[in-house]
User: What shape does this take?
Amino acid sequence: MKLIKTAFRSLIGNGLKTWLNVFVLSISFVLIIILQGILKGWSNQAVDDTIKWEIADGQYWQGKYDPYDPFSFDSSAVAVPAELQPDIDRHLLEPVLITQASIYPQGRMQGVLLRGINPDQQLLKIPTKMLNTSDTTEIPVIVGAFMARQNKLKINDVFTLRWRDKNGTFEAADIRVAGIFKTSVPSVDNGSVWLPLKKLQEMTLRKNCANILIKSPDAAVKAVPGWNFKSVDKLTESTRLLVKTKSIGTSMFYFIFLLLAMLAVFDTQMLSIFRRQREIGTLVALGMTRKQVVWHFTLEGTINAILAFAVGAVWGTPIMWYMVVKGISFNMDANEIGIAMADTMYASITPGLVIGTMLFILCVTAVVSYLPARKIAKMNPTEAIRGKAL
Amino acid sequence: MKTIVEVKKLIKKFPVGTGFFTALNGVDLQFGEGEFAGLVGPSGSGKTTLLNIIGSLDVPSEGEVVVLCKSVGGLTPKQAAQLRKEELGFIFQNYNLLPVYTVFENVEFPLLLLNIPAAERKKRVLETLEWVGLSDKINSRPAQLSGGECQRVAIARAMVKRPLLVLADEPTANLDSDNSHKILQTMLKLNEELKTTFIFATHDEKVIGYLKRIIRLKDGKVVDDVVV
Assistant: This one.
């Protein structure tokens, strides 16, 4: 306690130099919390949006279905199992049929994935209701905003669609854009054309077939031969992993800031020990052991971090509040980075994050303060008193 | 008179290059309670080295130094620190005040190390500063004080815990004649009123004039020991 008191006095007595170090350290402190908060918020939002737009409460995948292998789509399009039919009838499961196709907007050819879904489904946020149209001239489809922008599609645009049925025969028909929806989940937007399930089944001669079944939270998971149930955790694993990978890159920024702050603390400590040799000798003469003096100087450096928390709280709290409540807009399309990303991202700043960051900075500062202070243990006090120990 | 420091056949050698320099060569001395004694001699005679060993800041190469019944050579660093903290006061040529502390905080420091309660600390600091005539400077920092005032703060810091022994190394070396006399009179007063033992290391004639016992050192040996 007395060491804390004496160290605190020495630190405050150093005036402006102390406050400069404290301010630099507080920048690192606030920045780490904000960046981590944004990444955490992004991760939460990415998972939430993926659940709302794509996964619901999990999916049954036909055994051969592999979303990364387009050749698996045809072989995995099979009749839905009889034991799951009652759940499908009660809309507790929504089948999705997926097949490859090409569209020809304004004469250009573009490979797409046709995704057939029940227009009346309510498990996903995709506005499939727009597929319910009385106009039977063209096949109604809906596409994501990114897909529409990439292919210069507008509502009511009519263009040719070419696909192959289950026998491999090429077919073609005109389709009409019945709706364009905005989503932050790239996998339901980029390269996907959504159309009524029954229509797609009819077009591909795959009556009552599907590749995946989307599950409602009210449906029980059943073991069905030939079908694998994928839980939400399993299906969002890659999203979480992707955010984590991106967070490593972002972490570099705050490590640089932290490094600068630590450099300032280290430099001050080194200079202090050289400049304050006489003081060190005096402290020993007054009855402190060299070990206590080492602790005194280590504490002095570490208290920088504690003061930085206080200073950071003063100027950082309004910024953090803004990031949590108002969020930040990155003006970047989710599809460009391949991961769900909302227009506005909200930081998720939890007490755990704040306390964790505080402990981390406190430990790093303590180590950085201790390293130069070790020199004191080797000092001869009689030389130190005269300022000639180093 | 109770003996508080006993120096027996003390030899202190320092490594120099491949050999050794002998700073003290067979010193035998005794200091009693309430003495106002001085180690006098030219530079290099060994007076500061002897003072450092008595102050448990250094250890003998050979022989023994017993301070308040404790053999300095046998003390662990912690025990030596304990001895300095509780029983010894130091006054240095360059004052060695803690520059970022105020006068009050400098004088309070030894009491902080002794874990004395805040109210008692305040009382004793103010009382000690009154002795040395610095009651009006308690919030000043060392940089705002004159050399004489700094040395008076150093005396207050040494005296605030009422040590049995005060070791003063060239306390007037950086002071003018006027301030030197004031400082010496303050220390003499404390010696007479509190019976604190003072041992000086000096070659200043002004200090020598106040000493009640003069021990002359030359080349690490005692050449004269006179009670005035």
